[in-house]
Specification:
Blueprint: E1 3-9, E2 17-25, H1 28-32, E3 41-43, E4 48-52, E5 58-60, E6 76-83, E7 93-99
Antiparallel strand pairs: 1-2, 1-6, 2-7, 3-4, 4-5
Length: about 100
């Protein structure tokens, strides 16, 4: 059974950015790399967010940090808040707070 983690951005948040989300992950470190926007994934090799191409590779954003309205993994506070039930899987975003502009 996986855990539920609250991810909160450190520092200021602007319009059209996420400030927090609740995610499903096995470990705190796994949680840190989940992006609340399901279009984006963390690319460990490039140390930036990107998105999956049709061939399964990741194309890294040329805008790096805030292209997806989120923050780098090291700029997040991660808090264990509970256990997920079996209806959720690793990487699911349960809810997210987005500051629309």
């Amino acid at each position: 059974m996986s855990n539920l983690y609250l991810l909160q951005r450190k520092g200021s948040v602007d319009y059209d950015e996420y400030d927090s989300c609740v995610v499903v992950a096995d470990t705190l470190e796994d949680a840190r790399y989940i992006c609340p926007s399901d279009r984006f994934v963390w690319c460990h090799a490039s140390k930036a967010f990107g998105f999956y191409r049709e061939d399964g590779t990741i194309e890294v954003s040329k805008y790096s940090k805030h292209y997806n309205g989120w923050a780098f993994p090291d700029d997040l506070d991660v808090i264990l808040i509970g256990k997920a039930n079996d209806t959720f899987k690793e990487g699911d975003v349960i809810c997210a707070s987005f500051n629309a502009g």
